[in-house]
Hints:
The complex is a heterodimer. By secondary structure, chain A is α/β, with parallel strands linked by helices. Chain A is built from nine helices and ten strands. In chain A, helix 6 packs parallel to helix 7. Chain A is globular. Chain B has eleven helices and no strands. Chain B starts with a helix and ends with a helix.
Amino acid sequence: MTDLVVTKRAAPLAQSEPTGAAFAPVSPVDIEARGVTKHFGKTKVFSDVSFRLARGEAVALVGANGTGKSTLLRCLMGLIPVTGGNVHLLGQQTDTSGAAALRQLRAKAGLVSQKHNLVPRLSVLSNVVHGLLGKHPGMRHWSHTLAPQSSPAAALHALERVGLGEFAGRRADRLSGGQSQRVAIARAIVGAPKVLFADEPCASLDPAAGEDVMDLFFRLVRDEGVTVVFTSHNVAHALRYGDRVLGLAQGRMQLDATAASLSAEDLRGLYD
Amino acid sequence: MTDAALKRFERPSALAFLGYILGVSIIFWCLAGAGFSLEKVASAPPRFADFASRAFPPNLEPDVLVRLGWKMVETLQIAVAGAVIGVILSVPVALVAARGLIAAPWANQIVRTTLGFIRAVPDIAWALVFVVAVGLGPFAGMLAIVIDTIGFCGRFFADDMEATERGPAESLTATGARKIDVVACATIPAALPAFISTSLYALEKAMRSSTILGLVGAGGIGIELKVGFDLFDYPTAMTVILMIAVVVIGIEQLSGWTRTKIIGEQR
């Protein structure tokens, strides 16, 4: 696996020079990790992870179970603190930002999780309206019935984009797994985020539904020029939907290469 | 026979044997402290039969039934008003008591300790306190029910919110939502079935409590029970007991039916 990394990495990762030089972005940098290290107590998850993601890039984060992909995503969003190094999201350093500034920053981002994470007892429309809480905090957005007309309208538009406009009034727990994940995507895109994080968005779905969800997700976000970081165990997805592939293994970033330069066999090396 | 099977028949160690002796001794010590007497147990059935013969038939005179009926209504009013206000006040209290939601750990601990203190004091003692504070009558009883309900629901609402799945809350946090918005839109809706169930138990508990608060002058039908026994008017006392049993069982049935209708169908 280490051989793979050396041959495929466009340029060696150095702490002083984050990310591969071949991918040095010409567009603005939306996400930058500088020597990010994360420990939970005495358990080291990963160390010295560095990369830069340019605006509009789609990056697949791959690696075996327990290598810290999901943890890295949460560090990038400032949902959990880093142990060392720092993260810049949309030009702002997350670990030094105050709570209010971090919230404003997150309002420009979105997250689609492995599990849809909808609130089961609420309507589909309310769940999507809640995606606007970062931009419009307060009681009026606690329910679609209280929210100003523009918010349910935006939520309905997002639902129509994921093909579920007619399900707006249905309870979220009455949907299938694939439909629920589509609603989660609608919730993530309703606020027109600049950056989207997706943590194995189709892992809990059957293969056909998973393909549908991934196709839909990337069709929606690529057209808008949104920067995407997604984790996946599906090697084909990583190569098909990612412009770039980052690989975590043995607590380090072991791979940083363009998807075009990699084969499925190359990525499987990360799981050995 | 295997070694494991043989081990089951091994003699207890000396220390374990001493432990058994100590355990049994404590039980006997408690029985002695409680005035346990086989002689009294043996003599109780004839006395109970004597009470029953004097209490039956219960007093069903119309004017007595009307008077007791209104007292029962007052008892219900104390229970419902106290439980509803208690449940409403429990929500903000529980939000501060729940770990990892909106308040700092020290605030969680202070509120949880206070709730523990409230639960440790029996409702009849709270009624005595409020009789002193606001005077005799149903208002003191209602306040006792309110404080008792906060102690009960505040703790369980907090536990219910802590036990909810964190995923929806994380997804909303990731959109930049404030903690209070996350709690309102993800945590509370997820905990709502448990809230409803706990609230219905609180109502049942309030109903049972409110029937005895009258013993200390805090309103409700309890005072009629006390007067009935004090005046050896056992038929009226029996009527009160039967009314309490019917209403409490009725409330429990209604509560169970409501719980099934609301939670059973929506889960």
